[in-house]
Amino acid sequence: MKVDAVIAAGDGRASKKVFKKNKALLDIGGKPIIRHIVEVLLSCKEIGKIVVVGPKAPFNKVIGDLDIDLIEQKRSLCENGWEGFLQTLPEYKATGKLTDDIIAKYRKKYVLYLSGDIPLLTVKELEEFLSYRDMDNFDYIAGITSEEVLNLFGPRKGRPGIKMATFHTRDGNFRQNNLHIARPFLLIDSINLILKTYDYRYQKEFINIARTIIEILRLGRGSVGKSLFYYLLFQISAGLSAIGLESLAYVTSYPITLARLEELISKILHVRFKTAYTTLGGAALDVDNEKDFLTLSIMYKDWSNLLSQDDCHSS
User: Fold this and answer.
1) Are 74 and 80 within 8 A, CB to CB?
2) How far apart are the C-alpha atoms of 83 and 106, rounded to whole Å?
3) What is the DSSP string of 210-261?
């Protein structure tokens, strides 16, 4: 069964502009990033309807000729993702009204969510991620990429690269990439928490660390203790790793496993949550700032060639 896709590419308050421009409209490899992503989706046989949410007028100039639904962005990431999902429902699209009958009919419908700033996404990685969509047993699946894969795109002598932060577990160090499969109607009660988690994702900023701790303390009884414990271990292990104490960082993160993390997130969000490991890395290479954009522009051809290899993660 094909899965509908929603690209949340707005430039509201939770999204950082790069060179004062929506990141999805920046040119890399001779075309806007948003066009790279849409063309990959159109080339994937497992993708059905494609909905792009962003500033409609400029997006129409660069992807208006493609077979997509282009929706004007709302005020926030949450509203963009929600409206994108609703536009995949024929009855809502026809009337613009969300009724109890529509909710009942599509309660278990899931969609693929992507960000609008991943120019190195490939059909191969997308298909790999979609191969994990066991939606009989899960409601929300989030893609992750290992540090070993990400190191292929890191800085080296005589070559620029992007150093990406990871979270440490006993199973290895990972970064959440930009691929998600979710049932939005089942996540309604948790959407504010998910949005805040996204808002606070830049964990090198002290204010975001403080805000995250506050949100953890607001969790329901039974989740605060373990959530705070895991979060502090994440922060300590990341700090130890940053100063070169890798062995100590591993010991610090030893209590955390992916299975335990998935269980905790499932409890907090009240859905069946699972991570899905992809072995390439393009979906994790997003444009967060001017430096990353310039690096991606310089290395685009080389990294595209690397990702096209049959087994790039073992290079």
Assistant:
1) yes
2) 14
3) HHHHHHHHTSPTTTHHHHHHHHHHHHHHHHHHHTT-HHHHHHHHTT--HHHH
- Return d(Cα 182, Cα 88) in angstroms, integer: 13
Identify the pLDDT of residue 291. 94
Tokens of 91: 């009855």
pLDDT in tens, 47-101: 999 999 999 999 999 999 999 999 999 887 778 889 999 999 999 999 999 999 9
DSSP percent split of the chain into helix, strand, coil, nearest 5: 50, 20, 35
Q: 144, 275 in Cβ contact below 8 A?
A: yes
Angle at 232 between CA 231 and CA 235, to 5 degrees: 90
φ, ψ dihedrals at 181, nearest 5°: -120, 130
CATH 3.90.550.10 fits 3-187+271-314, yes or no: yes
Spans of the chain below 50 pLDDT: 314-315
Beta bridge partners of 283: none
Return d(Cα 169, Cα 179) in angstroms, integer: 20
Specify the pTM.
Answer: 0.91
The whole-number pLDDT of residue 1 equals: 86
Query: In this predicted structure, what is the pLDDT of residue 161?
Result: 96
Both tokens of residue 24?
Answer: 């999805």
pLDDT for position 315: 41
Distance (Å, rounded) from C-alpha 39 to C-alpha 25? 14
Domain borders along the chain are 3-187+271-314, 190-269
Indicate the pairing of strand 167-169 with strand 172-182.
Answer: antiparallel
